[in-house]
Amino acid sequence: MSMWNKVRPHIELIAAVLSGILIIIAYILELQDIALPSVIIYLLAFAIGGYAKAKYGIKKTIEDKELNVEFLMILAAVGASIIGYWTEGAILIFIFALSGALETYTMNKSRKELSALMEMQPDEAWLLKASGETVRVPIGELNTGDLVAVRPGERIPVDGEVHSGQTAVDESAISGEAIPVSKYQHDNLFAGTVNLSGSITMVMTKPSSETMFQKIIELVQSAESEKSPSQQFIERFEGRYVKIVLVVFGLMLFLPHFLVGWSWNETFYRAMVLLVVASPCALVASIMPATLAAISNGAKSGVIFKGGVHLENLSVIKAIAFDKTGTLTRGKPEVTDFIIRDGADREQVMALVAGIESQSNHPLAKAITDFAIQQGFNPLRNLQVVDVPGNGLKTHFNGDEILVGKPGFVGEQEAYAFEGRILEHLANQGKTVTFVRDGQGILAAMALKDTVRNITKTTIAELQDRGIYCIMLTGDNRKTAKAIAEETGVDEYIAECLPGDKVQHLKKLLAKYKYVAMTGDGINDAPALATATTGIAMGEGTDIALETADVILMKNDLSRISYSIRLAKKMQLIIKQNIFFSVAVILVLILSNFFQAISLPLGVVGHEGSTILVILNGLRMLNRHV
């Protein structure tokens, strides 16, 4: 059974090669005037090489009640045999089978990443019971909230977060990034990634059916079944075109005999040649192989396209709107400045502030604590901290009341006057400033900012070089928005946008530019993602953003937008080359046939050769360098 599974994906190619070998044997016998065995072997070559295409063609004709290219090829091969051109008919079947095998290879290649992902999903996990015992159980038996033990070298079985322990995780299967990611308590973990160093206990946060891996698999499967507008047009065109060819073929069977004096044999021969050369095989194969190869290329590079239509749209994008937080920026505040009053003990101040902030769950407090620890200062313990909602924190230390919070909480006038009005300077840079006050006045000021991603500025510049208008839509205040806009280099920014405002601005952009992309990661971005011609979501974004978007950047790497546009443009170029080439070949062959300048063998080679060439040209989309 395992051997059959290995052979099965290549069965069409094996049948085509076997058909070719039989044709050579039959041709040799024909040259030696061994007629009957030659004909029998030709028939065998017909059956082996043409079975798959004939079965598909007849089945699709019955299902769709529409004639197709496969039907034309069967008719042409049978017709060639009737007039004694066994070799030509067999070669037609052979090359047609070979082009079909190539197309199947392209589709299998595009699904390779999907299969690899499915194999990466563990079937079982070590469930940690309340008694402390670990039991090996199937993934399907786990529930949200269960504790799971993961040993070094094992694949993480489900999505969750670190409960205890620390380790480094290879997330290349999801992000494409080869550098291991350090994981500590409460950090996110993804199914299918590899635990490299430490033993950890994780808590399951999502059902196994909703893991990041499962979403990727579903998205790629959906993309493969969704056809682009160009592909849909070609398929509609194919049915009408085949009918026209059959009508012209019917007229060719007798009209040339009466109009131009061809013999009956020549008339029938030319009708057979027309049937071969007028078939739109190459035209039909111009789009799908290239599209599937492009989707596969994207999957390997950490970009999930939900269908060929989105690649087509990306190739003509004229404007891109960006959300700020989590898209242009990292989405996490970081301490950029820590200013301490002259004469104060820096080590004591840092340890004190870290000790206070470590007792709060606020994102700013966590950022300040992390900063102090990274600087090598250990937070003071056993402080009695009181949370003052909407203002900040307070405690007592060495007989002084210590306040940590915004200017209005620590003394607005003193906060504004601190260090030569440093607050105004920092605020103009889009930073949030938190102050510390002791019994002597303002002790310290900490500036925090959601920092711009390293790749943001170069990505914006590259998009602008391509003539794409870049605009930032953010719910943040104007001062912060202005600072981020200046740092990233976007063409325009609009601040204080509610979700509905983003939609309205997207509609204005669509009216002006027609093809507009929106990039975001949050629930508030979902309506704008749905409104845009192409919605692009960051891989770490919310579930609703991922579901609404048309393209997903699994690496959270904005440079993948530039890559995706280059990939889309290359795909469109290859498709245009294929269509132009295939139409040109058909026209040349049809005209040559009317002028009796082409034989059936040349017609077969010219027509089927062009089909193979457009498929091979489409396979260039598998090249990672675009």
TrEMBL record:
Record's bilayer topology term: Multi-pass membrane protein
Keyword annotations from UniProtKB, A to Z: ATP-binding, Cell membrane, Ion transport, Magnesium, Membrane, Metal-binding, Nucleotide-binding, Phosphoprotein, Translocase, Transmembrane, Transmembrane helix, Transport
Transmembrane segments: 12-29, 35-54, 66-85, 241-262, 268-295, 579-598
Stored SUPFAM superfamilies: Calcium ATPase, transduction domain A (SSF81653), Calcium ATPase, transmembrane domain M (SSF81665), HAD-like (SSF56784)
Stretches assigned to the P-type ATPase A domain: 119-221
PROSITE patterns named among the record's database cross-references: ATPASE_E1_E2 (PS00154)
CDD domains: P-type_ATPase_HM_ZosA_PfeT-like
InterPro entries assigned: ATPase_P-typ_cyto_dom_N, ATPase_P-typ_P_site, ATPase_P-typ_TM_dom_sf, ATPase_P-typ_transduc_dom_A_sf, ATPase_P-type_domA, Cation_Transport_ATPase, HAD-like_sf, HAD_sf
Protein name: Cadmium-translocating P-type ATPase
Pfam families linked to this entry: E1-E2_ATPase, Hydrolase
UniProt subcellular location: Cell membrane
Primary localization class, coarse: membrane
UniProt record similarity statement: Belongs to the cation transport ATPase (P-type) (TC 3.A.3) family. Type IB subfamily.
An example molecular function term from Gene Ontology annotations: ATPase-coupled monoatomic cation transmembrane transporter activity
A GO CC annotation given for this chain: plasma membrane
